[in-house]
């Protein structure tokens, strides 16, 4: 269930973060997060971790995209709730 909630929150983040207004760094971080949330049977990349990628994205978008940063914070809260 938590993995599905993370995927749902990530999709919500994608829907609210304007693609035409994202930097190359933001796109890269979104891709890293998507990779971490892919198939559960595949190994996760070691660096950066999912938590690190989300934290970096929040830092990068919080000024220009506060609503999207709020959604990303929800992802962090969900990660903390499941012990990640």
UniProtKB/TrEMBL annotation:
<dbReference type="InterPro" id="IPR025516">
    <property type="entry name" value="DUF4404"/>
</dbReference>
<protein>
    <recommendedName>
        <fullName>DUF4404 family protein</fullName>
    </recommendedName>
</protein>
<dbReference type="Pfam" id="PF14357">
    <property type="entry name" value="DUF4404"/>
</dbReference>
